[in-house]
Design brief:
With about 725 residues, the protein is an alpha+beta fold. The protein is built from 17 helices and 35 strands. The protein is elongated and about 105 Å long.
Length: about 725
């Protein structure tokens, strides 16, 4: 009797599933490693492009690795184990050994991904899978799978990939159910002009805390139209439901469409058009590799190609902008997910192409590759979305080397340049001045870089990658968000006309004596938390963050959805950390994309942090007038704890609205000048003792005057500003 993964199955469904098992017996399995010749016989109708989308840590990479096992991409031995487990309805028990463990390192290749257990960069793999839905003579499908990040900070990877697939599997944890970012990725799918076909699956059903039936019913009610019987149950650990999931993808995901002027099955005579899905710099090969989808014709090593940019807003599909430079194709291959050189890619296939580029930004997603001899021919170009490359940074920080001497700044610049080649979400602006701006760092930090990030986790991952991949200890300042300053007419300053300025660097913040008003960016926040235990703490947190338009909606008897509009500056600091603390880890957060037009007037002020009377711009922050003093005092207190003691006193002050609002001191190391060789100097002569103490005091003051710039700032000092409201 076949294994059933649905809540209910009709007789027709059961019969179909039995036929599938008879058709794909153990001896009929195929593998792209052993049956590469089948690739040339697979028509476009037998191609399936799909991806996983899910909340962070919901098991996408683990499930992807099991699919790679089943299709033979990890070798014959792993495939035999996977097929045997499928025939025996999964691995019994929960014991994990070397042959049973998920191999997520094949997909999450960065050290930061392995250490944190998250996906930062989208990965892809092409597989062969024998299935009855195939119409070609081999009965085999070409399945192209994407494993995508789950965190909102890397949502650009998700949005980009969704334009190149025809199907998406929305994956949910059978114990946690719907999370905030689950909602977000589902909305991304629905807002696309041509949304991919959506399948829903639950994973980790083997856990003791799993409630697959409850979660399935909740998801069906939430999605309004999804039959709970169609939701698949899977477990990567026990290899349950892997084959059923792949079958559902093959049955329900449609193949890519032919271009209007394509010649059909004869790809040898068609005009080659390939769309760039992604590009990255390969250090080992010293050049750029482009991940492409072949939409028509074929591409092979030795061809000469040119890059064409289509016009998504044009009425005619043939409108294009041509880069007249011609490039020789050096290498062509497929990703399994490791690179396998094939020398040729045909219509419907996806793989990598190397043709001499040195910067991935030369071939952004959506760029079209054509033969150089065909650039002037009339052709239908694949329709691309205008927002593929429209992502902008949502917060900014400055990055400084911990050791600025001995070429530290130059090494940092080189490392950031190399990281930016593979992380197009970064915006980097160099400055090497020693001025008082936060980018220059002033006398405390020295020169630095102004870097734009997609979120706070993105900034943290960036700093860790600098350390892991380049051995550079960098200091990342607290994030700054863009404020809109509206200057009002001021006779005293001869400013008779109002004007507007966007301020991202707080060194440009106007003096408090000027007449102006501040508009701060607002984002939509979505929180999912427990109904009974977390309602009070979540509402209190939203209130403290100055949220407006707070609404609540029950998802089921155990979870509530909270929505609100919150100032972006309050979200990028420690909102998520506080939410996790207040909800014991059960709460999840998601924010909308920052909209430059979503602004609100706010009574906020710049708070300057000064060390020994010298303002340290990278430690400055903006907060509401009501919390100005409390947050300034909190930062001073935390700096007092993390700044190392010196031979002189360090005076820490917070200044706002032209006055000191908080102050702390770090005591200096003090030598006992009244004792020499174990004896008290001067005996009982008080005048002698006072003279020695006064001399020491003058020396400390002189040392402070000449050494005030030697206060050492660490990453903990900047973290004290980020966590000032905790």
């Amino acid at each position: 009797m076949p294994r059933i993964r649905f809540l209910q199955l009709s007789t027709v469904q059961i019969t179909t599933r039995v036929c599938f098992r008879d058709f794909r017996s153990f001896s009929s399995r195929v593998s792209i490693l052993e049956n590469e010749d089948l690739l040339q016989q697979i028509p476009l109708q037998d191609v399936r492009n799909w991806c996983f989308i899910a909340h962070i840590d919901h098991g996408k990479s683990s499930l992807s690795s099991r699919i790679l096992e089943l299709t033979g991409n990890l070798g014959t031995e792993a495939q035999e184990i996977a097929w045997k487990a499928d025939q025996e309805e999964g691995i019994k028990g929960t014991t994990v050994n070397r042959k049973n463990k998920e191999r997520i390192e094949l997909l999450d290749t960065l050290s930061v991904e392995k250490e944190r257990g998250i996906t930062v960069k989208a990965s892809t793999a092409s597989m062969l899978y024998r299935h009855p839905s195939a119409v070609g003579p081999t009965g085999t499908l070409l399945v192209n799978m994407f494993d995508l990040p789950g965190h909102v900070d890397f949502g650009r990877e998700v949005s980009r990939t969704l334009h190149f697939v025809q199907g998406a599997v929305l994956l949910l944890d059978a114990a946690q159910g719907i999370q905030a970012q689950t909602w977000s990725v589902h909305e991304k799918v629905q807002t696309l002009p041509q949304p991919p076909h959506l399948l829903v699956a639950l994973t980790k059903v083997d856990l003791g805390s799993a409630r697959p039936l409850h979660v399935a019913l909740t998801v069906a009610e939430w999605l309004k139209g999804i039959d709970p019987d169609s939701i698949l149950y899977t477990s990567a650990r026990q290899r349950k439901g892997i084959r059923e999931l792949l079958d559902a993808v093959c049955e329900q995901v449609p193949p890519p469409q032919l271009l209007e002027d394509d010649v059909g099955d004869d790809s040898e005579t068609g005009i080659m058009r390939a769309v760039v899905v992604d590009s990255w710099y390969d250090v080992s090969r010293g050049g750029v590799q482009c991940l492409v989808q072949i939409r028509a014709g074929k591409i092979e090593e030795g061809d000469r190609i040119s890059m064409v940019t289509g016009s998504p807003d044009a009425d005619e599909a043939t409108s294009k902008t041509v880069n007249t430079q011609s490039y020789p194709v050096q290498e062509v291959g497929m990703l399994l997910p490791h690179s396998k050189r094939t020398g040729l890619l045909r219509r419907g296939q996806m793989g990598y192409v190397r043709f001499g580029l040195k910067d991935p930004r030369q071939a952004i997603p959506g760029t079209i590759l054509v033969w150089s001899s065909h650039v002037n021919k009339d052709m239908v170009l694949p329709q691309i979305s205008s927002d593929l490359a429209s992502f902008k940074s949502v917060l900014y920080a400055t990055v400084h080397p911990e050791q600025a001497d001995d070429g530290g700044f130059e090494a940092l610049c080189n490392a950031v340049d190399r990281l930016a080649l593979n992380d197009t979400g970064l915006e980097v602006q160099k400055t090497s001045s020693m001025g008082k701006t936060s980018e220059s760092g002033g006398p405390f930090l020295g020169p630095g870089l102004r870097v734009g990030f997609q979120g706070l986790l993105h900034a943290d991952v960036f700093r860790q990658r600098l350390k892991d991949e380049f051995g550079i200890e960098a200091l990342v300042t607290p994030p700054k968000v863009p404020y809109t300053i509206q200057f009002l007419p001021d006779k005293n300053r001869k400013n008779m006309e109002p004007y507007t300025q966007i301020v991202e660097d707080l060194s440009e913040w106007p003096d408090f004596s000027q007449k102006f008003k501040v508009l701060e960016p607002i984002v939509d926040v979505r929180i999912i938390a427990r109904a009974n235990e977390d309602t009070g703490p979540v509402l209190d947190l939203l209130t403290r963050k100055r949220a407006t338009e707070i609404e609540t909606q029950p998802l089921d008897e155990e979870k509530w959805l909270f929505t609100a509009k919150v100032p972006w500056a309050g979200v990028v600091t420690d909102f998520d950390d506080q939410l996790k603390t207040l909800t014991a880890g059960y709460g999840s957060l998601d924010t909308s994309t920052l909209n430059p037009d979503s602004l609100a007037v706010a009574d906020v002020h710049k708070v300057e942090i000064m060390l020994n009377g010298e303002a340290v711009e990278p430690l400055s922050f903006v907060c509401h007038r009501d919390s100005m003093q409390s947050e300034g005092r909190a930062v001073c207190k935390k700096l007092q704890e993390v700044l190392p003691r010196q031979q002189f006193v360090i005076v820490i002050q917070a200044k706002a609205a032209g006055r000191i609002i908080a102050s702390e001191r770090v005591k200096a190391y003090r030598k006992d000048v009244l004792t020499k060789s174990g004896k008290t100097v001067g005996g009982g002569d008080q005048t002698r003792k006072m003279k020695l103490l006064e001399k020491q005091k003058k020396g400390k003051k002189r040392l402070q005057e000449y050494s005030e710039n030697k206060v050492t700032l660490s990453q903990a000092a900047f973290n004290s500003v980020i966590s000032r409201t905790s």
